[in-house]
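Reopening: structure tokens for the zinc ion complex, inputs below.
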Amino acid sequence: MSDGFNLANLKREILSRSESDIWDAAKLEWGLASVFDADEPQRCLCDHYPIIEVCVIRNRKNGVVAEVGNVCVTKFLGINADKIFGAIKRVKSDIDRALNPEAIELFYELKVLNDWERGYYLDTWRKNAGLSVNQLATRQKINRKVLANMARAEAALR
Ligand SMILES: [Zn+2]
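Re-run output (same inputs, fresh job):
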């Protein structure tokens, strides 16, 4: 399992938590609920260990929640988790940095960002030196909101 996931295990575990017994249908019951960086290494649903970048997935039909690593979530939900976690890491180490569109869309879908914040961010994420003092302050404010939401996501599971 050096490649960071085990698809057979993942399928079995997901099916046991889904309403449908058919993989292609069961898959559609699931969506990403939140993401966080774990303080302590976690185990993925596929049994891969350790995972630090944790994706919380939720079944829309029965409300069941599970934690998977970024490799599995990419395979399973087709989300580019690497890019999202990469952007979050940059913002964590420097609050002036920008999230990328992948992360912006995710946090918009998760209702962390509202329409205005999403639009603002998509308009300005490529600018760095060109940002005014106010624009930079707005970016920092949105970044803090995203980081606070990730901290809450982790706390909620403990
Ligand atoms: Zn996995």
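The mean pLDDT is 91. Strands lie at 30-42, 51-59, 65-69. Marking as resolved unless the reporter disagrees.
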